[in-house]
Inverse folding.
C-alpha cells in the first residue's frame, strides 16, 4: 500500500476506533472474536454476531472486524455482501433497533416491538412503504442494566417503553 492510500485509511481507522470505544457493543464483539482466537476463518461467525448485536453491518463495524481479524477490508466487505443473510444497512432513512435479548425481553421489549409494528405497519427486518423507517432487532447490545434498550439511528436509549418509542419514531415520520 502506498502512503497516499495508507494515510486516509489510517485516519478512518482511528475515527472508527474512537467511535467503537464509546459503544459497548464493539467490546462484546471483540470478546466474541477473542473466543475464536481472532481467527480469520471465523469471519462469517463474527459477522453473524456483529449483525446480532447491531441489527445490520454498518461501515465502521466492518472496518472494526477487518482491523481486529487482520483481514483486508475488501475481504470483509466481500463476504458481507456475498451472503444474503447479512444486511449492510437499513433501507430506510432511519433505523430503530429493538434489543430482544433476555434482560430487555423480560422488561417488555416485545411490547415495544409490537407497538411499532402495529402503528407503522412494519415488522422486524422490514422497512416502511415510505422508506422512512427500518425496524430491526438485536440480541443483547450490552446495555442490560438500562433494559429495555432501543437504538435510534445508532444512539442507545435506556428504559424504553412503547410510548417513548412511538414518540421518538413519530418525530422522524413527521419530518
Ligand atoms: S438484553 Fe438488551 S442489552 Fe442486554
Amino acid at each position: 500500500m502506498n502512503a497516499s492510500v495508507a494515510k486516509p485509511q489510517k485516519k478512518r481507522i482511528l475515527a472508527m476506533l474512537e467511535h467503537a470505544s464509546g459503544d459497548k457493543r464493539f467490546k462484546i464483539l471483540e470478546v466474541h472474536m477473542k473466543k475464536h482466537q481472532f481467527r480469520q476463518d471465523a469471519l462469517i461467525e463474527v459477522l453473524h454476531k456483529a449483525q446480532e448485536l447491531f441489527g445490520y453491518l454498518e461501515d465502521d463495524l466492518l472496518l472494526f472486524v477487518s482491523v481486529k481479524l487482520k483481514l483486508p477490508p475488501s475481504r470483509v466487505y466481500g463476504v458481507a455482501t456475498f451472503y444474503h443473510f447479512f444486511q449492510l444497512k437499513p433501507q430506510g432513512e432511519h433505523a430503530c433497533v429493538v434489543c430482544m435479548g433476555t434482560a430487555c425481553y423480560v422488561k417488555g421489549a416485545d411490547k415495544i416491538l409490537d407497538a411499532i409494528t402495529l402503528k407503522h405497519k412494519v415488522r422486524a427486518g422490514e422497512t416502511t412503504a415510505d422508506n422512512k423507517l427500518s425496524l430491526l432487532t438485536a440480541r443483547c447490545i450490552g446495555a442490560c442494566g438500562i433494559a429495555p434498550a432501543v437504538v435510534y439511528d445508532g444512539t442507545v436509549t435506556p428504559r424504553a417503553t412503547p410510548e417513548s418509542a412511538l414518540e421518538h419514531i413519530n418525530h422522524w415520520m413527521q419530518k
In short: The first helix runs from residue 3 to 21.
